[in-house]
Amino acid sequence: MFTPDDFLKYAQWMGIGTIFLAVITILGFILKWGIRFRLVGTTGFMLVLTAGLFSLSLAPITRTVIPGATRYNLVYDNGSNQAVITVPLTITNSQLDATLRQAASNLYSYGRSGIGGDNQLTIRARVVLHPEPGVSVPLYIGQVKRSLLTREDENMSVEIFTDKLAQLTQASIGS
């Protein structure tokens, strides 16, 4: 995964290439080359790419890694204040807590808005049980609520539904 430092390095090299191409474009106008107008377009495009790479170097794009968290998949996100992730059937209580905290950190964005006025992002964790062939039952086993206003939320609330987690354990033993 690329880091902001990588993007800054790429932006610097693209900037050098853009300046070099701009010099060739000016030389093309002085010598009245037939390709001079294409060089203007290419130089402008290189300038746009350089600006894009530089802007990617300004914002951190790395994901938070919390020890003990398992992999999860985002299955629903309304882009505002609700999201649902799916976790493995073999998840434990401590892994679920760490996974919910990691998802809360990774899904935070300045662009989310709090519809409904509570300014809370709610992320629910679920698994899908198959009690019999052809039947799928979603089982929500936990949720986390965090602030939409601050990046570092000290009052993040993680709730694990222990009765549902026990039901998950019994279902995995029964199969």
Notes on the protein architecture:
With 175 residues, the protein is α+β, with helices and mostly antiparallel strands. The protein folds into two domains: 4-56; 73-174, no CATH class. The protein is 43% helix and 23% strand. It has four helices and five strands. The chain has helices at residues 4-30, 36-56, 93-106, 162-174; strands at residues 73-77, 82-86, 120-132, 135-147, 157-160. Strands 1-2-3-4-5 form a five-stranded mixed beta sheet. Strand 1 (73-77) and strand 2 (82-86) form a beta hairpin. Helix 1 packs antiparallel against helix 2 (36-56). It is elongated. It starts with a helix and ends with a helix. The model has no long low-confidence stretch (mean pLDDT 88).
Summarize this, please?
The protein is of the alpha+beta class and 175 residues long. The protein is 43% helix and 23% strand. Helix 1 (4-30) packs antiparallel against helix 2.
Rg calc: 25 Å
Order of helices and strands: HHEEHEEEH
Number of strands: 5
> End-to-end distance, in Å?
38 Å
**Number of DSSP helices?**
4
Mean pLDDT rating: 88
Biggest sheet architecture:
5 strands, mixed
Lateral arrangement of strands in the main beta sheet: 1-2-3-4-5
Structural class based on helices, strands and sheet pairing: alpha+beta
Residue ranges: pLDDT <50 for 5 or more in a row? none
Helix percent band? 40-55%
The structural domain count equals 2
Bulk shape: elongated
Q: What is the chains' assembly state?
A: single chain
- Which band does the percent of strand residues land in? 15-25%
